[in-house]
Amino acid sequence: PSGPPMNIKTTSRSTSSLSFLWHPPQKTKQNGVIISYTACVSRSQNGPCFQKFVTSEREWLVGNLNTSTKYYVRVLASTKVGHGPYSTSKGYFTNGPFVPDKPTNIIVTNLASRKAAISWLDPKNQGRYRLSRFWIKLNKENLLILNITTGKVNEYKIDYLIPHTTYEISVSAGNYLGFGEEIITSFLTSEEAPSGPPLKIKTTSRSASSLFFIWDPPGKTKQNGIIISYTACVSHSENGPCFQTFITSKREWLVGNFNELTKYYVRVLASTKAGHGNFSENKRFFTNGRAVEKPIAATLNTLTFSLENQSATFLYFYVVALELKYNMEPSSSDNYENKELVTYAEAKHSTDPKPYIAAVVTSSGVDGNMFILGDGSNTNDPTSRKLGSTTSDYFNGPLEPGTGYRMFQRIVINEK
């Protein structure tokens, strides 16, 4: 034949087969009696035949094909003299979904504390039309934090992740019609050292020789992993060298062997298995003094006390008084920061009881360890005298008759 068969077309198709039929060559190009046809199916236009079929009929059922896949068919005719040319290849799809199946073999690689790389393989069934893109979604605690489409790639790098956090990532393959089913996996980023210090350091109890501290962990977003230990430090001055340190998995520390009526500074850092973070800011705390003896003398407006004998070297100390109104339970002196101590006048005009500084006593001003609360004397704060102040800072004003008072001493060892 000098011409090919004509009008190749499908009469039926399924997900795994195609049924073809065709017409013989034009009558003027048959050049004899057509005794057979050779049909060829290939995966590309004019590509090699992976199935051939010789028949005297003008039809062919091709099986064992892939779903949603395009195949090319061409046919030639033969007389007893020989065969003619192939027809032009024509492409046909088997039945199946229009969009690709889900990708396979999703893997998380190069996993670190703040980044990861994701790779996958193309789906075996890529749909009726060419696979051209992927849809990537990243979730953290059911919150969508990444939602992008890419071209036809097989990996993607993710940055700006949070240490020691579980993420869920999904990838779906698509063409211009849409996207198919997604493949999902999850991963956990590695830990880092904490990026924030422990919080809210405070004392829950104290004595003349010990302090009991507790604290909260760093903020949740700054822990960067599982906190496995805390390192606590106590020093004599702010940011000074630690004279006691303590490593614990708990958030508490009982420190002993302290001096009474003494100021100490505490700071704490947290650690994960990846390393330790920074120390917290120093917090200042005072130990208690020994219990104050009862007044050795009393008048309508004064109380005479024996001052605490200071064995340690100090610059000065405050004598602080608190009027006990309404049968109030006296609070520990530890509950008051220095900034909460007011003057006699401020305490008198306050509707709530406030501790006031009755006097400032320097190391050279202790006279027989006796102090009369309410004697009307005035004293200056040593820190204000350095600034050239000529006024009296503190007035040891008269006491209210028939009223209870709490008195304590607040020692200052140095100006730090």
TrEMBL record:
Keywords: Receptor. PROSITE patterns: FN3 (PS50853). CDD domains: FN3. The keyword Transmembrane does not apply. One of its GO terms (cellular component) is membrane. It holds the Pfam family fn3. InterPro entries: FN3_dom, FN3_sf, Ig-like_fold, RTP_Phos/Ushers. The keyword Protein biosynthesis does not apply. Gene3D superfamilies: Immunoglobulins (2.60.40.10). This is Receptor-type tyrosine- phosphatase F isoform X1. It comes from Paramuricea clavata (Red gorgonian).
